[in-house]
From TrEMBL, chain A:
Keywords: Cell membrane, Membrane, Transmembrane, Transmembrane helix. It is found in: Cell membrane. It is a multi-pass membrane protein. One of its GO terms (cellular component) is plasma membrane. Residues 19-355 form the ABC-2 type transporter transmembrane domain. Signal peptide: none annotated. This is ABC-2 type transport system permease protein.
Automatic annotation (TrEMBL), chain B:
The keyword Transferase does not apply. Keywords: ATP-binding, Nucleotide-binding. Residues 2-233 form the ABC transporter domain. InterPro entries: AAA+_ATPase, ABC_transporter-like_ATP-bd, ABC_transporter-like_CS, P-loop_NTPase. This is ABC-2 type transport system ATP-binding protein. Pfam families: ABC_tran. PANTHER family: LINEARMYCIN RESISTANCE ATP-BINDING PROTEIN LNRL. One of its GO terms (molecular function) is ATP binding.
Length: 365, 310
C-alpha cells in the first residue's frame, strides 16, 4: 500500500498544478458565485409607480432588516441596465403591495434574496389584513408585544457563544468546496482504471502486493489529497477571508472526511461500470454536478420539497454533509447531533465501495 | 519445469486458445510465434496467472499454478505487450516503484535498479521522465521493470514492436545475455520470425488459438522440405569432380556455373562431409559453401497458406 501511495504522490508532486488549480478554483468559485468578499450583498430596489419615492422608502425600510443584504434605492433605468448587462444579479421592482424580481442569471444567491423579499411582503400583507379589520395601530402594538414577548428567542451555541445567523455565503462556500472535491476525487479514483488499462495494475497483481493493499493505496491517496484541498480552503476562508465557518473546525473536518469517504466510494462505484478512463471522464463529470443540485446545496435549506428529489439526495453523501455542517455552523450542533448524518455517509460509503470493488473485480475475470 | 496441458480460453464463447500443450524447461529459450490475434498474449496471460483458463492445466514443478499462483508469480517476470509504466515519472522512479512492490528496500533496491538500468542501457537517462523517452527506450524500461526481482523465468510479450533497429538489437542482445549468462529461462513472443530464430532454442507456432507446429528450428524447417539447396565454390572445377559429385548418394541435380556448383540433394544425405572428402582427394580447395534453406517464414506459409505478417 505504501508503494502505491508513494507513486500516486510522486505523480502529483511532479505535476502539482492540477491540485493547486482545484484549490484556487474552490476559492474563486465561492468568491464569485457566493457574492464576493464583502459580507453584505447590495440589491437594487426601485419603483415605477406614480408615488415611487414613497413606495421605495416604505419597502426599503421594511426590507433592510437582514444583515446579509443591503437594499438600495436606485434609478429604474439604471437598475434594469445593470441586470441586463449582468453587472448585478437581481433587482426588485416594487409597487404598492406587490413586487417583481428582475433576474439576470439564476445565481444561487438570488433565491435567498427572493425568499427574504417574499417573507417581508407576506408579513406586510398579514399586518394590513389585520389592520383593515381592527382599528388602532396594529403595527405598533405588534412591535411592542414582540419587544416584550412572554418567551424570547435567542440563539446561542451549546457553549453559550453567539452563533452566527444563517448566511448563504457560508453555505455556498461548503457547496463549492465539496463540488470541487468531487472532481478531485474523480480524477484520483480514475487512476485505478488508468493503471488497469496501462498494465501497471497487472504488474502489481503479479507482485506480492495484496489486492487490499492496492485498493487502499489508491483510495487513501484520493482521500488525503481531497482532505488537503478541503482543509486548505476552509482555513483560507476562516482566517484570511473571515467567513463564518462556526467555532468547531474539527467537527467540520470530521464531517468533510466522512463526505470524502462517501464520495470516493461513489466514484469507485462508477469505476465499476466503466472499462476505460475515457468512459469514466464521460460519465463522472456529467453526473457529479447534479448531486449538489438535487441535494439543494446551492439553495436555502428547505427549498427542495419534492419527495423524489429528497429521496435521491439522501442516497448521496452531499445532502448529509451539508445538513450536518449547516447545523454545526449555524446552530452550534455538536458531534452527537450530527452522528446520524455521519453514519449515513459512512453507510453510503461502505455499500458503494463494496459494490464498486466487486464490479471492478468481476470485470477483470 | 513449466508445462501446460490442453490449455484453453474462450471469451464469450469464442475460443481464443485451444488445447495448448506446451512445456518450458529450466534454462531454455522458447519462442511463441504467431500472427496478430493468434492468441499469444492470451496464452501468456494464462501462464503468468493474470487470467484463468477456461479449461486445462498449468503446472510448475508439479504444482498446479492455476489454483496456487504464488510460486509462478514469484519466479517469473512478465514484460507486457503494452507499456506498463508511469509516463509522468522518471525511469528511476518507475523502477523504484516496481521494485518496492516486490518488497525490495534500501541498498538492495538501489542495486537492483542500477543493474536493471545498466542491463537495458538506460543508466545515463534514468532521471528523465518516461514520457520524453523514445519508443525504444520505453520498451527497454518496460523490460527492466520486470527484472528487478531477478526472475528465473522471463516472459516477454512482443517486446520489440514498433521500435528502431538499434533498440531492437539492444533488447535481443540483453535477452540473449540473460539466457546464456544468467541461465534465465525465456519465453519470447513475437511475430518477427528473425528474432525468434536468433534467440530461441525451440519454438511454437500458433495460429487461430492453436499450436500448428512445434520444435527446434531445424525440426520445423524439416516439415517444409525434403531437399537441401547447396552452393559450393571451388578453386577449380573439372569434368571428373562433377561426375563424382553426381554419384554421391542423395544428389539429385547439379548445375555448374564457372567455379560454382549448385547441388540439390535429399535432406540428410550428409553431402558436405562427402564433398570435403572428395575435394581433398582431387586437391581442390573448397573455398566456400552455402546452404540455401527455407526460412521459418516459408514454414508458416506452408502450414497456413498465409504470410506471418502482411
Ligand atoms: N478480454 C478479451 N475479451 C474478448 N476477446 C479477447 C480478449 N482478449 C483477447 N481477445 C481476443 O482473443 C484473440 C487473441 O488475442 P491475443 O491478444 O491473445 O492475440 P495475440 O496473438 O497476442 O495478438 P497480437 O500479436 O496482436 O498481440 C483476439 O481475437 C482478441 O480479439
Ligand atoms: Mg499480443
Amino acid at each position: 500500500m505504501k508503494s502505491v501511495l508513494w507513486a500516486q504522490f510522486l505523480k502529483d508532486k511532479r505535476n502539482p498544478l492540477l491540485i493547486l488549480l482545484f484549490i484556487a478554483g474552490s476559492i474563486v468559485a465561492t468568491l464569485i458565485l457566493g457574492g464576493g468578499v464583502q459580507s453584505v450583498t447590495t440589491v437594487a430596489i426601485f419603483s415605477e409607480e406614480a408615488n415611487a419615492s414613497e413606495i421605495e422608502e416604505k419597502w426599503g425600510a421594511l426590507l433592510n432588516t437582514n444583515d446579509s443584504f443591503k437594499f438600495e434605492i436606485v434609478d429604474p433605468e439604471e437598475a434594469r441596465e445593470d441586470v441586463r448587462d449582468g453587472s448585478s444579479d437581481v433587482a426588485v421592482n416594487l409597487s404598492e403591495d406587490d413586487y417583481r424580481l428582475l433576474v439576470s442569471k439564476r445565481m444561487p444567491g438570488v433565491s435567498y434574496v427572493e425568499q427574504h423579499v417574499a417573507s417581508v411582503f407576506q408579513q406586510e400583507v398579514q399586518i394590513s389584513a389585520v389592520e383593515s379589520q381592527e382599528d388602532g395601530n396594529v403595527r405598533d402594538e405588534m412591535e411592542e408585544y414582540l419587544a416584550d414577548a412572554p418567551f424570547q428567542l435567542e440563539s446561542q451555541g451549546v457553549d453559550g457563544e453567539q452563533i452566527p445567523k444563517f448566511n448563504i455565503r457560508t453555505q455556498l462556500l461548503f457547496a463549492f468546496t465539496f463540488l470541487i472535491s468531487m472532481f478531485i476525487i474523480g480524477f484520483k479514483v480514475n487512476n485505478v482504471t488508468q493503471d488497469r488499462v496501462s498494465g501497471i495494475w497487472d504488474r502489481m497483481i503479479l507482485s506480492p502486493v495484496k489486492k487490499t493493499g492496492m485498493y487502499s493505496g489508491y483510495l487513501l491517496y484520493s482521500f488525503l489529497i481531497t482532505m488537503l484541498q478541503i482543509v486548505v480552503v476552509l482555513i483560507m476562508f476562516k482566517y484570511v477571508m473571515d467567513y463564518d465557518v462556526g467555532n468547531n473546525l474539527w467537527l467540520i473536518i470530521l464531517i468533510s472526511a466522512c463526505f470524502t469517504f462517501g464520495m470516493i466510494s461513489i466514484a469507485m462505484l462508477i469505476t465499476g461500470f466503466v472499462r476505460t478512463p475515457e468512459q469514466f471522464y464521460a460519465i463522472y463529470p456529467s453526473l457529479i454536478p447534479l448531486i449538489p443540485l438535487v441535494s439543494g446545496a446551492y439553495m436555502m435549506p428547505g427549498t427542495i420539497t419534492n419527495p423524489v428529489l429528497l429521496f435521491i439526495a439522501d442516497l448521496f453523501p452531499n445532502a448529509h454533509a451539508m445538513e450536518a455542517i449547516m447545523s454545526v455552523v449555524f446552530y452550534g450542533a455538536g458531534l452527537q447531533e450530527v452522528t446520524m448524518s455521519l453514519l449515513y455517509m459512512l453507510l453510503i460509503g461502505i455499500v458503494a465501495m463494496g459494490v464498486g470493488i466487486n464490479l471492478v473485480e468481476r470485470r477483470s475475470s | 519445469m513449466l508445462e501446460t496441458i490442453n490449455l484453453s480460453k474462450s471469451f464469450k464463447g469464442k475460443k481464443v486458445v485451444q488445447d495448448l500443450n506446451f512445456y518450458l524447461n529450466d534454462g531454455e529459450s522458447v519462442g511463441l510465434l504467431g500472427p496478430n490475434g493468434a492468441g499469444k498474449s492470451t496464452t501468456i496471460s494464462m501462464i503468468s496467472t493474470l487470467i484463468k483458463p477456461t479449461s486445462g492445466k498449468i503446472i510448475l514443478n508439479g504444482v498446479d499454478a492455476v489454483h496456487k499462483p504464488g510460486e509462478i508469480r514469484s519466479v517469473s517476470g512478465v514484460v507486457p505487450q503494452e507499456l506498463a509504466l508511469y509516463q509522468e515519472l522518471s525511469a528511476y522512479e518507475n523502477l523504484k516503484f516496481f521494485g518496492s512492490i516486490y518488497k525490495l528496500k534500501g541498498t538492495e533496491l538501489e542495486k537492483a535498479i542500477q543493474q536493471a538500468l545498466e542491463f537495458v542501457g538506460l543508466e545515463d537517462r534514468k532521471k528523465d521522465l518516461v514520457k520524453i523517452y523514445s519508443g525504444g527506450m520505453k520498451r527497454r524500461l518496460n523490460i527492466a521493470a520486470a527484472l528487478l526481482h531477478r526472475p528465473k523465468i522471463l516472459i516477454l510479450d512482443e517486446p520489440t514492436v514498433g521500435i528502431d533497429p538499434q533498440s531492437r538489437n539492444h533488447i535481443l542482445e540483453a535477452v540473449r545475455a540473460l539466457n546464456q549468462q544468467e541461465g534465465t529461462t525465456i519465453l519470447y513472443t513475437s511475430h518477427y520470425m528473425e528474432e525468434v530464430e536468433q534467440l530461441c532454442d525451440r519454438l511454437y507456432i500458433m495460429d487461430h488459438g492453436k499450436v500448428i507446429a512445434a520444435g527446434t528450428k531445424e525440426e520445423l524447417l524439416s516439415i517444409l522440405s525434403t531437399e537441401d539447396k547447396i552452393k559450393v565454390e571451388l578453386s577449380r572445377i573439372d569434368e571428373d569432380i562433377v561426375q563424382q559429385v553426381e554419384t554421391i548418394e542423395g544428389v539429385r541435380k547439379i548445375e555448374v556455373a564457372e567455379l560454382q556448383l549448385r547441388i540439390i540433394a535429399a535432406k540428410g544425405s550428409n553431402l558436405i562431409s562427402k564433398l570435403v572428402h572428395l575435394t581433398e582427394q582431387h586437391h581442390i580447395q573448397l573455398i566456400n559453401f552455402h546452404t540455401e534453406s527455407p526460412s521459418l517464414e516459408d514454414v508458416f506459409l506452408h502450414l497456413t497458406g498465409r504470410k506471418l505478417r502482411d
